Amino acid sequence: MNKHFEKTRKTNHIARPAARVLLIAFVGLLLSGTTLAADTRVITDMLDRQVTVPERVERVICSGSGCLRLLVYLQAQDRVVAVDSAEKGGLPFSVEARPYAVAHPELQALPLFGEFRGHDNPELIAALSPRPQVIFKTYAARDGGAESLFAKTGIPVVGLGYGDLTRNRQELDRSLRIMGQVLGIEDRAGAVIAFFDGLAADLERRVKTVADADRPTTYIGGLAQRGGHGFASTEPAYAPFVFLSARNVAGKLAKSGKGDSHAVVSKEQLLMWNPEILFLDISSAKLQAGANGLEELRSDPAYQALTAVKKGRVFGVFPYNFYTQNFESIFANAYFIGKTLYPGAFADIDPMTRAEEIAVFLNGGPAFAAINQGYDNLGFAKIVLP
User: Fold this and answer.
1) Cα 310 from chain centroid (whole Å)
2) From the CB of residue 244, how many other CB atoms can be counted at a distance below 10 Å?
3) How far is Cα 375 from Cα 296, in angstroms, rounded to an integer?
4) Can you tell me the distance from the alpha carbon of 333 to that of 319, in angstroms, rounded to the nearest whole number?
């Protein structure tokens, strides 16, 4: 009996320190968890997912069309640690026409993490050094894979939309605000949104009193849409025309619902409309034969029969879609188109000067003159069609 008691006493003597060690370790884990919780926060992304991100986010990557453009607008390009193939010459265009990329050529030198349009490579992402703390992903609802990418990399994925400047403006604003919240730069996100609001209001104010009789019919052709297209390619809800209340002959083709609907117009239909003034998206001017809008205008008998072509009323504007919409180009084009359609309402505007002012605010540097050189200075110019 005494021996049993002595054995039990010794066992308990050994067990008590072990229990204390386990207790201390458990308390340490609790404290550690509390510390981690204090260093993180939860945000709601565009997919209505609750995403836990670090309290301070200094290193990110941007996946998906236009994602890096939005980040540059927020002046956070110095936090990018890698880029997709679009930033390394992977787009199907021979001339760069993204103002943010022109203003920040240093982005090309960053490591590669995947292909453009959101085709990420988890292995490349996991191997990045320094490692990103957050992955921003535009068009997340369409492209999917946010949860899968998080599972494969262990890096929080914040799903975003992209939106546009007209019917999906709320989606654009919300995406900017979410990025600003994650990065701790909400004030800059608000400033960008206010800047867009101010430009739109200025354009609408200028044309408000233009009489219907002084509004010529017009058409924009050669718009890119997931690749380049010829002069038949247009946007019935082309944002510059919307801001200017222009008489867009293709406007009746606009589809109900969300998004700027893309359309391909037959030559016969365009001849029937016979718009008074034509605009060419100059992205089309560098495409191969059969898709080159400029060459079509110069050589196709159907287009040559248009009154605007005969009278020399064809003008070049900067690329609208280039790895999705160039918002700075859209506003810049709106001022040039406004001055072309309603010169009296824009008498105080030099379109190229205004374009560079927009680029400087959004991207931190000018870009349009450099882009124009790559397109033979067709932007904001009357196009000669012999």
Assistant:
1) 37
2) 26
3) 17
4) 9
Cα separation, 11 vs 50, in Å, equals 49
Q: Are 372 and 379 in contact (CB under 8 A)?
A: yes
Instruction: Tell me the pLDDT tens digit for each residue of 352-366.
Output: 999 999 999 999 999
Q: What is the pLDDT of residues 254-312, one digit of tens each?
A: 765 444 578 999 999 999 999 999 999 999 998 877 789 999 999 999 999 999 999 99
The DSSP string of 23-83 is: HHHHHHHHHHHHHHHHTEEEEE-TT--EEEEESS---EEEESTTHHHHHHHTT-GGGB--E
Tokens of 343: 């010169």
* CB of 63 closer than 8 Å to CB of 135: yes
Which residues, listed in sequence order, are joined to residue 315 by a DSSP beta bridge?
A: 279, 382
- The sign of the dihedral angle between the CA atoms of 223, 333, 165, 135 is positive
**Do the domains 215-382 and 40-195 match in fold?**
yes
* Domain parsing of the chain, residue ranges: 40-195, 215-382
Return all residues near 256 (Cβ < 8 A) that are at least 6 apart.
none
pTM of the model: 0.88
CATH architecture of the domain formed by 40-195:
3-Layer(aba) Sandwich (3.40)
Place of tokens 């998004």: 259
CA distances from 153 to 56, 125, 206, 353 (A): 19, 7, 50, 45
Matching residue, tokens 């609001």: 197
Average predicted confidence (pLDDT) for the chain: 88
Whole-angstrom distance between the N-terminal and C-terminal Cα of the chain? 117
CATH architecture of structural domain 215-382: 3-Layer(aba) Sandwich (3.40)
Positions of E strands within the chain: 40-44, 50-54, 60-63, 83-84, 112-115, 119-120, 134-137, 157-159, 217-221, 233-234, 247-248, 263-264, 277-281, 314-317, 381-382
